[in-house]
Write a structure and sequence with these properties.
Length: 70
């Protein structure tokens, strides 16, 4: 399951990131988004979703949300 299918307000554990872009992987890692880390979907928006990782909230697009497996 990926973030686009997640329920709002439920905490999940990131299983893996499925992207072939090393720059994108580095960006996600800098946000604290990597395997084993808890993530919560705050809200689903038309173009993506708002997530909470550690102490921050981020708006990510649908393509990126579909790459994050939970």
């Amino acid at each position: 399951m990926n973030l686009t299918q997640a329920q709002e307000g439920t905490e999940y554990i990131i299983r893996q990131i499925e992207t072939e872009d090393e720059e994108l992987d580095a960006f996600l890692f800098s946000l604290g988004c990597y395997s084993g880390e808890p993530i919560t979907v705050i809200a689903h928006k038309k173009g993506g979703c708002v997530v909470s990782i550690k102490d921050g909230r981020y708006n990510i697009d649908r393509q990126l949300a579909s790459a994050i497996q939970i």
